[in-house]
């Protein structure tokens, strides 16, 4: 079966998932996480991709990123994936592939949906039972978004910048988002979009994207998706 074309538009955020082959481990030591993030920063800068959120799990990776050029994202992921496979194979005396096929990418509405995906990404270690709170997980953008830690590869979402007038206010507002439960509908919508690499956003956003794209595939699944309104703290 031929691969479906990806939805790729410069200036629009995308939720990227890359998994280890057969769910095998991709990160073995602290150095592995560090190497991956360093190379992610390098290739993101080289190919003009803004990284807004990330989490490195034991056997997969989530990113929320905005490419500035049409091929920015694919070039970044290709270079990063190849480098990291060579690094792991050399470090651990192994051969063969590391990743499970090509990465998945979902075009995301830059408004509240992008903030919802950012939360979804950073809550992965909590849902996996690895930590009780995202602040306790070191390999996540929560350290920058919520706690103000300097992470060189991180760039704030446009929707993040309107959470407050100062960095401290934005961090506080972002932390408050995590005190609100993530609805089942929100989880279902993000997961469905990720699995099928559909467009994630409002109906207006989907219509807008459909008008801009020239691809021979639907931007949404045939069955009706769940809808939701993700709460955003607008206090500054």
Automatic annotation (TrEMBL):
<dbReference type="GO" id="GO:0003677">
    <property type="term" value="F:DNA binding"/>
</dbReference>
<feature type="domain" description="Transposase IS200-like">
    <location>
        <begin position="9"/>
        <end position="124"/>
    </location>
</feature>
<dbReference type="GO" id="GO:0006313">
    <property type="term" value="P:DNA transposition"/>
</dbReference>
<dbReference type="Pfam" id="PF01797">
    <property type="entry name" value="Y1_Tnp"/>
</dbReference>
<dbReference type="InterPro" id="IPR002686">
    <property type="entry name" value="Transposase_17"/>
</dbReference>
<protein>
    <recommendedName>
        <fullName>Transposase IS200-like domain-containing protein</fullName>
    </recommendedName>
</protein>
<dbReference type="InterPro" id="IPR036515">
    <property type="entry name" value="Transposase_17_sf"/>
</dbReference>
<dbReference type="GO" id="GO:0004803">
    <property type="term" value="F:transposase activity"/>
</dbReference>
């Amino acid at each position: 079966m031929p691969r479906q074309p990806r939805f790729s538009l410069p200036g629009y955020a995308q939720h990227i998932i890359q998994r280890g082959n057969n769910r095998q481990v991709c990160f073995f030591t602290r150095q592995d996480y560090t190497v991956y993030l360093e190379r992610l920063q390098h290739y993101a800068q080289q190919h003009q991709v803004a990284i807004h959120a990330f989490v490195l799990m034991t056997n997969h990776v989530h990113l929320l990123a905005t490419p500035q050029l049409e091929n920015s994202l694919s070039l970044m992921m290709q270079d990063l994936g190849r480098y990291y496979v060579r690094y792991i194979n050399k470090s651990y005396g192994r051969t063969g592939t590391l990743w499970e096929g090509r990465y998945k990418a979902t075009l995301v509405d830059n408004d509240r949906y992008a903030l919802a995906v950012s939360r979804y990404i950073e809550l992965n270690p909590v849902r996996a039972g690895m930590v009780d709170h995202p602040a306790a997980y070191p390999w996540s953008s929560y350290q920058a978004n919520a706690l103000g830690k300097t992470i060189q590869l991180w760039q704030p979402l446009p929707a993040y910048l309107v959470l407050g007038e100062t960095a401290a206010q934005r961090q506080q507002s972002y932390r408050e988002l995590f005190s609100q439960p993530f609805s089942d509908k929100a989880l279902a919508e993000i997961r469905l979009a990720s699995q099928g690499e559909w467009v994630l956003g409002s109906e207006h956003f989907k219509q807008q994207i459909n008008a801009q794209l020239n691809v021979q595939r639907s931007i949404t699944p045939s069955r009706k998706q769940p809808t939701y309104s993700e709460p955003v703290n607008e206090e500054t």
